[in-house]
Amino acid sequence: MADSHALWTALDERLAGAALQVADLVVRPGSVAVFVEHDDASAPSLDELEQVSRDVVTVVRSELGDVAVEVSSPGLERRLRRIEQARAVLGRSVAIRREGGRLGGVLVGVEGDELIVEVDGEPQRIAWGEVREAQTTWSLGTDGADELDPERSGRNDGR
């Protein structure tokens, strides 16, 4: 199995200065999925995906050979693989698995190497080094409104 860290580093180097960055990477036998986003965690346009796909495919195939490559945005529920990604999604609901259990709440801050998650109205500090998995979560509210801010989601059509 390929070293996903080395591949991520190679992709970061190739995309340095580009409008998009690698948000996540999944390497499987015979295929690679690369998820890209803007620095502020917003989704790329189809034109941006098309432009960056050429570079991504070139890097992946130079590192791994002739494998299937998928390039897309990470979607609403995205894994947080780097603490920098957490800074871009402040105010969003998150689910975190760490040694000692799981918790869910709203990400209200990032200070140094700690996440601050509000759980049942109380802030909890979690060292990034203790996090085994973290991802944003999304749910449709009981009033039919989603929890995303319309401006951050790119939707401003009054819905």
TrEMBL record:
It is found in: Cytoplasm. Residues 138-159 are annotated as: Disordered. The keyword Cytoplasm applies. Keywords: Cytoplasm, Ribosome biogenesis. Required for maturation of 30S ribosomal subunits. Belongs to the RimP family. This is Ribosome maturation factor RimP.
